[in-house]
Batch of 2 targets.
Target 1
Amino acid sequence: MGNTLKKLIFAGFMTVVMNAQAAELKVGYVQVDKILQEAPQTVESGKKLEREFSPRSQELDRMSKQIKELEAALDKEGLTISEVERRNKERDVQNIKIEFQRKQRELREDINLRKNEELGSLQDRINKAVQSVAEADGYDLVVYSGVAYASKKIDITDKVLKLLGKK
């Protein structure tokens, strides 16, 4: 009886394996790095961030120029002004430098936050585009970058880019 049970289990297992082999699995591959470089939304996002942070960046440029001018004036007048006046000007320059560094750090942090927000939004759009292409073309599985090897015949990156370009 034990031998018969083993034969039945083996026959059932073989049936499942053969059915799985008979059903073809359609696999697709997407190069996320290529999409992030070429998608129109990436360019739009970069321009949007540039417009958003341009005034603050220009303010930092003005502050940097002001610091250089004050330091040049201090070097030029350093020997002809009193010690107290020179120390006051040095302190003023140092305070402006500290303010400049604070604003520069805040700008970098704000830019990084916004870049991450924009990237998250873009990733959502990419995922939706990948899903649309996969469903329309009947893919069973789509994998992203980071695979050891993917044939060009399963690469659907250009289809996803085309869909993203439609807006």
Target 2
Amino acid sequence: MTTERAEAFDFFGPRTLVGPELKPGDPAPDFVLLNNKLKEVRRSDFAGKPLLISVVPSLDTSVCSMQSVRFDQEAASLGDALAVITVSADLPFAQARWCGEHDAKNSQFLSDHRDMSFGAAYGTYLSDFRIESRAVFVVDKDGVVRYAEYVPVAGSQPDYVTALEAVQSVL
């Protein structure tokens, strides 16, 4: 069942987010996303490993770019103990270009452009614009959400300190 909820978003006022609002303790929904080589990536590909999921509206905006660079840098310091992915509705080709321009190589950049099913499952699908809303999730090795932050204003950064504390708690 798909749910809709109003959420503050600074593109012309409140907009509708599609999907549930996940909370700590919820099972992390399955997903199928595309990497920049057009290969499908599933949540099950990360089974048995903690996962940080950074969700951004578009890599080609300044706040999304800063968020993506920050988490990619954090991924470098955490090594193989954690999988880090960034999800957007950008085309895989645009994600590949952005990764090359920003030397992003410590995390995976995955696209939900095909059907926005990740956004609908994680409650980040901003249907008015067919993009993702900014969010951060930390999922433990058993596939349980341990941290969920929905950033209600598009131009705001997520709470990096709290998100990274949540990462440390699942390592």
